[in-house]
Amino acid sequence: MARWAVFDVDGSMLPGTSMEKQFLMYLLRSGRLPLRSLFYYGFSALARWVREGADEAFKNNKMYLKDVPVQAVQRIAGVLFLQEILPAISPAALREWKQRRQAGYRILLMSGSPDFLTGLLADYLRPDFWVATHLEIRAGHFTGRVAGHHPYGKRKTLLLQQLQPKLEIDFARSIVFANHHTDAHHMRLFGEAVAVNPTPALQKIATAQGWPVVWWK
């Protein structure tokens, strides 16, 4: 069994924002998001909000990519990663990453952002394993649907439990870094948990649980 250090990206290693939010803002600023994509996204968000609530309506909604060519998205993502995402990664997060690596931990990178963004960060940081939102592709275009589980909330717990045999995760000897109150569920799996740039709700949970609180800027 192995010790793992699990690093959340959005809001933690990337303070105050997410890779997907940066990507969306870039598309909007550059006029590269077709009107039909906004319609798909808005209509899907409204329908899912009624059925499943706000979190599923927005965080698990990738319909803005429906019918968009994969290669075009990958090109844009590559530019955005170098210009905006990589420079915004917290130096404190990178120091912690390096220290955990030197201490013999295996490293798992976890993000709810799409795989075409998280994969670029994984290529740069070289974790032992990474988790992201994998998107369905047909005929070289995104369908707007998620392939598998979107790593958010309790689904992170499910994913980690499914990965445990394959990665030989010793939860009791491993550590997790995360920022959002919906992360508290999977944080409880670990022998050590650190609340990074926590939401007010996670800060309250961290105080009750005795978890350290740190601020990565």
Treating each run of at least 4 consecutive H or I residues as one helix, how many helices?
9
Helix content: 40-55%
CATH fold-level topology: Rossmann fold
In the CATH classification, which architecture applies? 3-Layer(aba) Sandwich
What is the CATH H-level superfamily?
Answer: HAD superfamily/HAD-like
What does this molecule look like?
The protein is globular and about 50 Å long. The strands form three sheets. The chain has a six-stranded parallel β-sheet with strand order 5-4-1-8-9-10. The protein has one domain (4-214): HAD superfamily/HAD-like (Rossmann fold), CATH 3.40.50.1000. The longest helix has 19 residues, at 70-88. Helices cover 48% and strands 20% of the residues. It is an alpha/beta fold and 217 residues long.
List keywords for this structure.
217 residues; alpha/beta; Rossmann fold; two-stranded parallel ribbon; 48% helix; globular
Quick summary:
With 217 residues, this protein is of the alpha/beta class. Helices cover 48% and strands 20% of the residues.
